[in-house]
Amino acid sequence: MEEKNVYQPYLMRIAAIIDETPDVKTFRLEFINEEEGKNFKFAAGQFGEYSVFGEGESTFCIASSPTREGYIECTFRKVGRVTKALASREIGDTVGFRGPYGNTFPIDQWKGKSLLFVTGGIALPPLRCVIWNALDLRDNFKDVTIVYGARSVNDLVYKHELEEWGKRGDVKLITTVDPGGETKDWKGEIGFVPTVLEKAAPSSANTIALLCGPPIMIKLTMPVLTKLGFSPDNIFTTLENRMKCGIGKCGRCNVGKYFVCKDGPVFTFAQVNQLPPEY
Amino acid sequence: MIDKKLLQKGSLDELVKKLKSGGTRVFAPVEKGGKVLFDEVDSAAAMARDYVQTTLSAKDVILPRCEEMMRFTTGQGTVTMEKAPDLPPPAVVLGVRPCDARSIAVVNAVYLKDYNDALYKSKIDNTTIVGISCAKCDEYCFCTSVNGSPGDTEGSDILLTEVDGGNYLAEIVTEKGKALAAMAPELFTAAGSEDKAKHLADVKVQFDLKAVEKKLPGVFDGEVWITQSLRCIGCGTCSYVCPACTCFDIQDETDGNRGVRLRCWDSCGFGQFTLHTSGHNPREVQSQRWRQRIMHKFSYQPDQLQVTGCVGCGRCSRACPVDMNILQHIKDIEAQ
């Protein structure tokens, strides 16, 4: 019996495409082989290698929730060779996916707690997986607060879902855009995420914070979370580094002795604070 | 208990011919344009004799520098995966230095731990290593500083040591080695009281490996990486000649609508190795990349995989175009 080639992707059919912004798209992917789809399991926080055959592979999180079975979704910005090729694919086309890889957000351990999501720009997709996972099991959690910012209204991803979360009575959603990024009919906040978070001042009592965004946002948001009373081991993030294999062999995504692909991508800030600045 | 036999001087050639006639591929060091490289041979006569170390190790046999991972055909929005090529016939690699044989443990640790890399496993399972002890060493060798020795049997299935009269003492180390010897039992005769030790090179211990391992985490932010790598030109040669380097890149290549996905050797010395698509690079400058090379081999791998990623073969120092000497650099770190 021949052993399975761990680099062999599943063949996936593009079932739906959403244009999030002029250069960001979301793909819904379904397994072409139904048996593979039935056996596929993942948990919030994991990622995969998405491929366009002939162009190569790219690493993104699984942006959909494990509670929604039968498909996975990914959201990506059109920027490099693979993502440009991916963006040119159409509904019905075949692409590759291998995974799920990496560790997960321990949401089973968060029952009875409140969740605070703080995120910016294209960093919402990895947290969107957790958000839907939590909302689909809404009774397990107390307050759910989402603070999400982008450079401009145009750069906000998942606009339909933001609208849906905004209408829900059991979610507190705060959206913001950088000064100058607003439109005439913008009803959200204007200002940077750390400032908006400080103003909103969500309680840290019995609360897990999930923080994901560009390095500058993280750097300026951490002091705010600390001020609000969050300890580093109650703040979770997901790191990214360039990867090829996703399974701890190709040797490039390590931060010190830890591989982002295998030991991460999910870390608490208590862990991140111990890492050398190699991410 | 390692079984010891004697292989007569002339028997090596008979062994090669016997293996070849059975369909086995035999690789051995041969001289090519002033270099000593592993290549397929038909007879032991082709083997290079007078060298301290081969220019490249035999890693290429088990981990090809460019290897097909899969092939596919693309159509109008469709993809068809094609059958993987058949595994090549079994290989015997003859004349592997004990340091190189020990490096297989490093490659195994990376490729077989957690996710079993079947591409690699099929090749290592299909390969028998016949090592050859070192009678000579040079100023670049430091196997004994990283727990090896010029007559170390670790990693070899059979280890040959040239003894008096040009005959070989054959230590049959593993089941694979036994199977190989069983293919030509008439060539492996009873060993006498050959003294292996007197035929081995004298490689002095130059640093305390445990002390270096212990020291490294504390010097992560030190100046030493800058001082040592100022002259590094980031050519990646050290990685390409290293028997224990395992990092790779994945690239697609196409010809019309047919394509292959390839795994190719890569190097942490290259700036693009860790470059994000956004332009951000966590290891932006050469000193950070040099630090990664040393930390990975002497700190991270011992910690995470319980292997030292350096076997003291000295190739990186011999090949470095700007004369960076890993032995000297490790000693300097030890002295920090």
Could you explain the architecture of this structure?
The complex is a heterodimer of chains A (about 280) and B (about 325). By secondary structure, chain A is α/β, with parallel strands linked by helices. Chain A is built from 7 helices and 15 strands. In chain A, the strands form 3 sheets. Chain A has a 7-stranded mixed beta sheet with strand order 10-9-8-7-11-12-15, sandwiched between helices. In chain A, strands 4-3-6-1-2-5 form a 6-stranded antiparallel beta sheet. Chain A has a two-stranded antiparallel ribbon with strand order 13-14. The N and C termini of chain A lie far apart (about 40 Å). Chain B has 11 helices and 12 strands. Chain B has about 325 residues and is an alpha+beta fold. Helix content of chain B is about 30%, strand content about 20%. Chain B has one domain (about 5-335). Classes of the chains: A alpha/beta (about 280), B alpha+beta (about 325). At the A-B interface, β6 and β13 of A face β4, α4, β11, β12 and α9 of B.
What assembly state would you assign to the polypeptide chains in this entry? heterodimer
- Gyration radius from CA atoms of chain B, angstroms: 21 Å
CATH architecture of the largest domain in chain A, by name, is: 3-Layer(aba) Sandwich
Structural class of chain A: alpha/beta
Number of strands of chain A: 15
Radius of gyration of chain A: 18 Å
List the main descriptive attributes of the protein structure presented here:
heterodimer; A: 279 residues; alpha/beta; Elongation Factor Tu (Ef-tu), domain 3; Rossmann fold; six-stranded antiparallel beta sheet; 7 helices; B: 336 residues; alpha+beta; four-stranded antiparallel beta sheet; 12 strands
Write the layout of secondary structure elements.
The complex is a heterodimer of chains A (279) and B (336).
Chain A: E1 10-21, E2 24-31, H1 34-39, E3 47-52, E4 56-61, E5 72-77, H2 81-87, E6 94-101, E7 114-120, H3 124-136, E8 144-150, H4 159-167, E9 172-177, E10 189-190, H5 193-200, E11 207-212, H6 215-227, E12 235-238, E13 254-255, E14 258-259, E15 266-268, H7 269-272
Parallel strand pairs in A: 7-8, 7-11, 8-9, 9-10, 11-12
Antiparallel strand pairs in A: 1-2, 1-6, 2-5, 3-4, 3-6, 12-15, 13-14
Helix pairs in contact in A: 5-6
Chain B: E1 3-7, H1 11-21, E2 25-32, E3 35-40, H2 59-62, E4 66-74, E5 79-82, E6 91-96, H3 98-112, H4 118-125, E7 127-132, E8 158-162, E9 168-172, H5 175-182, E10 188-190, H6 209-215, H7 224-229, H8 237-241, E11 248-255, E12 258-265, H9 286-305, H10 315-319, H11 326-334
